[in-house]
Each structure stands twice: as C-alpha cells, then as structure tokens.
Write a structure and sequence with these properties.
Keywords: Periplasm, Signal, Transport. By secondary structure, the chain is an alpha+beta fold. It contains three helices and ten strands; from the N terminus they run H-H-E-E-E-E-E-E-E-E-E-E-H. Strands 1, 2, 3, 4, 5, 6, 7, 8, 9 and 10 form a ten-stranded antiparallel sheet that branches. It is globular.
C-alpha cells in the first residue's frame, strides 16, 4: 500500500506541474502579441526591451511582467533568441490540451528558445488547479519534459498535491 501511494504521489507531482508538450508546440506556432507602455530597440546589439505593464499573448499563453528583454543572437551563430522577463512577480498562464490550466510566477523568468529551457528564479511557483510546487529556482526542460525545483538554503521546496485532482486526470 505504501509503495502504491508513493508511486501515485510521484506520478501526481510530475503530472501536476509538467507542461504538456503538445500544448506548448501548438501555442508556439501562434503569433506573439506584445503590448507595453514603453518599448526600446537597440539595433546594434539586437535587443528589444519592453517596460511597464508588459502583456504577452501567444495562443493560450498569457505572460505579464514589468520588463521583458528579447535578445537576438548574431546571424549565422546557430543560436536562437532569449527572453528575460522581470516583475514582482512575472506571472504566466497556459491552457493545456486537456483543458487544465497551468499557472506560474517568479521574480525573473529566463527562456532560451534554442535549448527550450525555462528558468524561474526568486519566489518561483508552478501550479495546476490546487496542486503546486514552490521553490527558489524552478527549471523546466521543454524537450525532455524534465522539471527541477531547488530551495535557497533558507527555505525548502514545497509541493502540495490534491489526490482527487490527480485521479481525475482526464477531467477539467
């Protein structure tokens, strides 16, 4: 019984906070819309900065931040854009293919489009329905669908799982 419960909790923890790859692929094919109070462009360094009330939408993805910096690497470098969002906190929301929402927050969010690696730093949280993970740093490898959360030495990683929501995996 204890082994079955442990397995259920492990599976639940992973499914509760892992982002659906198919939802991400569908959303990432949609147009990106960015609205902010201010925008600046540094053409020499290929950096665009959006500040004050930044709202980014792409498919079902909604991101709100105080500041977003998009850096484009030099041509023929083989690298892709990076996105850094700052806020108190930066928040994001995405509706997965199964209809369940995923919400997150952090003081800083870094996303490397080339490696498809997401890092949430400072007061980081990922939440699906009432299940959630809180930590100092949460990383997510989109390609491998691997999540890692770490504390900061003062606070530990905290996970809350709601068993009834885990059992109703296919329901909204």
């Amino acid at each position: 019984m204890k082994s079955t419960t442990s397995k259920l909790l492990l599976i639940g923890a992973l499914s509760a906070v892992s982002l659906s790859a198919s939802a991400l692929k569908d959303d990432t094919n949609q147009p990106i819309n960015i609205v902010s109070d201010n925008q600046s462009l540094d053409m020499e360094n290929s950096v665009v900065t959006f500040t004050d009330n930044v709202v980014i939408t792409q498919g079902s993805i909604l991101i709100k931040a105080n500041k977003v910096v998009i850096t484009r690497p030099p041509e023929n470098s083989g690298k892709k854009d990076t996105v850094d969002a700052y806020g108190s906190p930066v928040t994001f929301h995405q509706q997965l293919d199964d209809g369940k929402p995923v919400d997150g927050r952090a003081n800083k969010v870094h996303y490397d489009l080339g490696t498809e690696f997401l890092t949430l730093t400072g007061n980081a949280q990922l939440k699906q329905l009432d299940s959630k993970i809180d930590g100092s740093v949460i990383t997510y490898d989109v390609k491998k669908q691997q999540l890692k959360a770490t504390g900061n030495g003062k606070s530990r990683v905290q996970t809350v799982l709601i068993p009834t929501q885990l059992q109703d995996k296919g329901k909204k």
